[in-house]
Design a protein that fits this description.
binds manganese (II) ion, PsuG, 305 residues, eleven-stranded mixed beta sheet, Indigdn_synthA-like, alpha/beta, 13 helices, lyase, Indigoidine synthase fold, glycosidase, EC 4.2.1.70, binds pseudouridine-5'-monophosphate
């Protein structure tokens, strides 16, 4: 039945059948999260980092209505070049891409769904969506959070950008029973910075410890994902002042221009990148690579258990 919609790349399918480690990767980060051509270079570098760490990468997207788990280099180049012309696809959008045979770049939420369909348990990215600042008025809460509540895939990220309200994001995750694991940290990292004013739920210091907890969760039938918060390496972290000033300005501009809904996050990401003169892009790339390596280590530990 699933084959009707789903194309799992042969290398990925074989790895899954043999209980070899596989790490899922999203495609909205390629098309909407970074500018061309560095988005494509990064996506390929991330796949390479996962291979060098001993796991198989599976970048996920929708191409002409087919749900793709594992992309070719040509697919990645195509999505990166098309950029925001490609539809940003969350849970809501998947059936319409399929029915209309459209292309779609999958968010964290949609990537989790396709990863679970394929049998992949670990997914690495940059940052997750969350509760936006001012959500008390706008109701802007990323569908990523609801997906984490129900879909059993662990998401390795560098925390969440402070374009979001990190405190409300923590509260939302707590309500929905989604654990936030700090990898070698007691604080929720804020993407560009290692620190924030928020804590994590459980600090675990090794990939094996994380895999053991995930296995227990899922074997107990406790459905849903987990956030594995991996701080950006110190040497790539940004000065708090610089990044906060850029975020404040981007938020003001978004408000003035009436940006809302699914446009909001891509707008803020692009403006923060422009306002920091590309320094934030370098940090962004480094933290994604760092997450890919931890994702691979967790996937390996899970298949060894
Ligand atoms: N945060 C980032 N980089 C990203 C995204 C979020 O730092 O690329 C992308 C991810 O694909 C995430 C999506 O799933 O934005 C969330 O969008 P929204 O807030 O509209 O749910
Ligand atoms: Mn939103």
């Amino acid at each position: 039945m699933l084959e009707k919609y789903l194309d799992i790349q042969p290398e990925v399918a074989k790895a899954l059948a043999d209980n070899q480690p596989v790490v899922a990767l999203e495609s909205t980060i390629i098309s909407h999260g970074m500018p061309y051509p560095r988005n494509v270079e990064t996506a390929l570098q991330v796949e390479k980092a996962i291979r060098e760490s001993g796991a198989i990468p599976a970048t996920i997207a929708i191409i002409k209505g087919r749900l793709k788990v594992g992309l070719s280099e040509a697919d990645i180049e195509y999505l990166g070049k098309a950029g925001t012309d490609v539809t940003k696809v969350s849970r809501r959008d998947i059936p319409f891409m399929v029915a209309g045979q459209h292309d779609g770049a999958t968010t964290v939420a949609a990537t989790m769904i396709l990863a679970e369909l394929a049998g992949i348990r670990v997914f690495a990215t940059g940052g997750i969506g969350g509760v936006h600042r001012g959500a008390q008025e706008t109701f802007d809460i990323s569908a990523d959070l609801q997906e984490l509540a129900s879909t059993s895939v662990a998401v390795v990220c560098a925390g969440a950008k402070s374009i979001l309200d990190l405190g409300l994001t923590r509260e939302y995750l707590e309500t929905h029973g989604v654990p936030v694991i700090g990898y070698q940290t007691d604080q929720l990292p804020a993407f560009y910075t290692r620190e924030s004013d928020q804590t994590i739920d459980y600090r675990l210091d090794s990939a094996e410890a994380i895999a053991t907890a995930l296995k227990a969760k899922w074997e107990l039938g406790l459905k849903g994902g987990a956030v594995i918060a991996n701080p950006i390496p110190q040497q790539y972290a940004m000065p708090v002042e610089t990044i906060n000033t850029a975020i404040e300005q981007a938020l003001t501009e978004a408000d003035e221009q009436g940006i809302s809904g699914k446009e909001s996050t891509p707008f803020l990401l692009a403006r923060v990148c422009e306002l920091t003169g590309g320094n934030s892009l370098d940090s962004n790339i480094q933290l994604v690579l760092n997450n890919a390596r931890l994702g691979a280590a967790i996937a390996i530990a899970l298949s060894d258990l």
